[in-house]
């Protein structure tokens, strides 16, 4: 039985048996419904169903919900059988705390009885997906942006950066902007997510963005409940936030400047290799016009620090940038498990959860 690869993000969980040239078999919201009781249990108490997000800003925060979600994924969706569990590889975000790594390996061996475990950082796995072991990843996820220079398969943590900005913040920005032009709007956040996917885009450059603010045609959109709203420049404002975080009220450099500053802090002998192998990944990186704007701003940098983007192999699936960490995990699983580089049950029993820091790096 092939190893299972899991990439659990703040918005989507991707899982499937290790098949590097295919999209993950399962892509589902990282959510679980919970029934909660409000009151003292008497006649006045209310029972309601709530949705819980076990992963927040990339990190697991609710372990009980995560356990239930993984149980459903592994046994119901992927067909594991109790007593015959296989091996599993997790893609983990940048700067995952040691305590979370240890709790995950403990959950896998003590609750799920896996036969083997491995974990690797999403940034490294994304590079593996495009056949690289050195480069720099810019991962724009639902709850965060991670910028990670990688040399010979090792993340340069001292030069890496994480920002608490992600797709969810852009969605909230779109809500605020739409409310300005549609003051009577009453809309569910899930509908705003769909609007963002359809209408969010990046202007060609800052001058084009400013021109768009002055004169951008409005488009009428009818919501599922029959409400009619207009949307125009709001979509461009969402895209501009990645290059001008001041749009979000943040005093931060734009994403290209952040990348250049990150790479520039790496030793000079690795600089060229990192610059020439820059990879954009994460769901938000597929926003219309983003890659073109990113490369245009990068081209304005001095030639000594000018990033250039990796062209993905033609044989890889179209959704590579969205699923690159999972695909890289599938590639790595084909190596670490057959070559016994993973954490075995014997390793875990002998050393305990801390073994994850020795064998998964």
From TrEMBL:
Chief subcellular site?
Answer: cytoplasm
Top-level taxon: Eukaryota
Does this UniProt record's set of keywords contain Nucleus?
yes
Pfam families per UniProt:
Actin
Q: Looking at the keywords, is rRNA-binding present?
A: no
Enumerate the subcellular locations listed in this protein's record, separating them with semicolons. Cytoplasm; Nucleus
Task: Kindly state which keywords UniProt assigns to this record, in alphabetical order.
Answer: Chromatin regulator, Cytoplasm, Developmental protein, Nucleus
GO biological process terms held by the UniProt record: chromatin organization
Q: Which GO terms describe its cellular component?
A: cytoplasm; nucleus
What exactly does this protein do?
A: Essential protein required during embryogenesis and all plant development stages, probably through a chromatin-mediated regulation of gene expression.
What family is reported?
Answer: Belongs to the actin family. Plant ARP7 subfamily.
Q: What is the name of this protein?
A: Actin-related protein 7
Q: Which organism is it from?
A: Ensete ventricosum
């Amino acid at each position: 039985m092939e190893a299972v690869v899991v990439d659990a993000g703040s918005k989507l969980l991707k899982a499937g048996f290790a098949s590097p040239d295919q999209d993950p078999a399962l892509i589902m919201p990282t959510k679980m419904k919970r029934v909660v009781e409000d009151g003292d249990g008497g006649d006045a108490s209310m029972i309601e169903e709530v949705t819980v997000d076990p992963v927040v800003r990339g990190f697991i925060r609710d372990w009980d919900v995560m356990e239930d979600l993984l149980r459903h994924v592994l046994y119901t969706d992927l067909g594991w059988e109790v007593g015959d569990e296989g091996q599993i590889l997790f893609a983990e975000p940048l700067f995952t705390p040691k305590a979370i790594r240890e709790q995950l390996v403990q959950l896998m061996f003590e609750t799920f009885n896996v036969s083997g475990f491995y974990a690797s950082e999403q940034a490294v796995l994304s590079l593996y997906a495009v056949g690289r072991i050195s480069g720099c990843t810019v991962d724009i996820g639902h709850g965060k942006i991670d910028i990670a220079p990688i040399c010979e398969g090792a993340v340069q943590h001292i030069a890496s950066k994480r920002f608490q900005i992600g797709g969810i913040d852009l969605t909230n920005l779109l809500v605020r902007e739409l409310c300005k032009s549609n003051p009577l709007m009453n809309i569910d956040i899930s509908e705003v997510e769909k609007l963002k996917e359809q209408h969010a885009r990046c202007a060609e450059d800052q001058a084009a963005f400013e021109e768009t603010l002055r004169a951008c045609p409005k488009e009428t959109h009818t919501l599922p409940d029959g409400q009619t709203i207009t949307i125009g420049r709001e979509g461009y404002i969402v895209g501009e936030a990645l290059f001008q975080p001041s749009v979000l009220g943040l005093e931060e450099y734009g994403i290209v400047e952040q990348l250049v500053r990150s790479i520039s802090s790496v030793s000079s002998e690795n600089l060229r290799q990192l610059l020439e192998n820059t990879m954009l990944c994460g769901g938000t990186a597929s926003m219309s016009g983003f890659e073109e704007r990113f490369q245009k701003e990068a081209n304005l940098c001095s030639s000594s620090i000018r990033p250039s983007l990796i062209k993905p192999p033609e044989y890889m699936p179209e959704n590579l940038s969205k699923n690159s960490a999972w695909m890289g995990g599938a590639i790595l699983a084909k190596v670490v498990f057959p070559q016994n580089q993973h954490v075995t049950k014997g390793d875990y029993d002998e050393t305990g959860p801390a073994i994850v820091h020795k064998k998964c790096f």
